[in-house]
Amino acid sequence: MGDSALWVKGEYFDDFDAVEAAARGSLDRAAQPILFDRLAWFRRTWEHCPPGVRPLVARAVSEKAQCWLFLARKEDLSLTALASWYTLAFRPVFSGVADDAMKLRLLTAIAKRLRGTLKAHRITLSPVPVEDGSAKLLAVAFARAGWKVAQSPATVNWVARTTGLSFADYWKQRPGELRSTVMRKAAKTDLEIEIFQSFDEAAWQCYETIYEQSWKPEEGAPGFLRTMATDEGTAGTLRLGVAKLAGRPVAAQLWTVENGAAIIHKLAYVEDAAAHSPGTLLSAAMFEHALDRDQVSLIDYGTGDDGYKANWMDDARALEHLEMFNPRTIAGWFGWIRARLRNLVRGRRVD
């Protein structure tokens, strides 16, 4: 079956209810093990922090599998990933039975459609994981479909691989300075820590208060996080840690735990309590809970190459920024030339 045949049932969508009807549950929690690949995540992103003026969801269908690419139209008529600063990984989403060859065929069909029928001049996708093959798959598929592809580093994703480890085992592997800090501060600080696994209004108010008093910039879309915490609490995957000092909330962390992986989404502490290291002590408690109670095999510290993450994590996984340019358009051609010159200077790949 050629690539063109894959589009017999292929479609574009700009309405999430229509996507839900067409997906028939294949984009729901039960079918998609990763939070960022679910329709609910994309729907929530568009509701609270839309990256463009209209959503554009592309689908390619084969007899046994489907490929979805969630995009947004920009005012300059380019396309971008339907993602936000809360999105820790963006990739094409597959359902059904799709081996590597089928995934490539489906994604290439989407890329050809976007270049031909839609005539988009540029598509920007970020942050795309490298380790799971998503960045390479996208680059190869779009290059095969006639796009010019430029790749550059977006950021990194620190992780700890914890299969079979208790917290005690994990803790022995941490730097001595970190272990010493936790021991000293815990002995001197009467910190009350509670970890919530379902949504709690009072706990959430503590989180918001702590965030407002922290060094963090203003929250981009607090409604997004609240809705996420509510939904994940209902699903039993929420881990919201709150630390109090003399009854005052001073540190909070928002995690999710699902399918053997813990993801650290947000953390903050009150600046005037920094001398007590409440964030570090809360982290130790959250890691202990994830390892000894949830028994996760992976802890994901989100995006960003912050120096302190290396103390808690094992490896930094690359995340890529991909730009695809349509050489059939003037804007696409000149965009590719600029990207080529920029990446040649940086020693990066341009196809």
TrEMBL record:
Keywords: Transferase. It comes from the Bacteria. Residues 185-309 form the BioF2-like acetyltransferase domain. It holds the Pfam family Acetyltransf_6. InterPro entries: Acyl_CoA_acyltransferase, BioF2-like_GNAT_dom. One of its GO terms (molecular function) is transferase activity. Coiled coil: none annotated. This is GNAT family N-acetyltransferase.
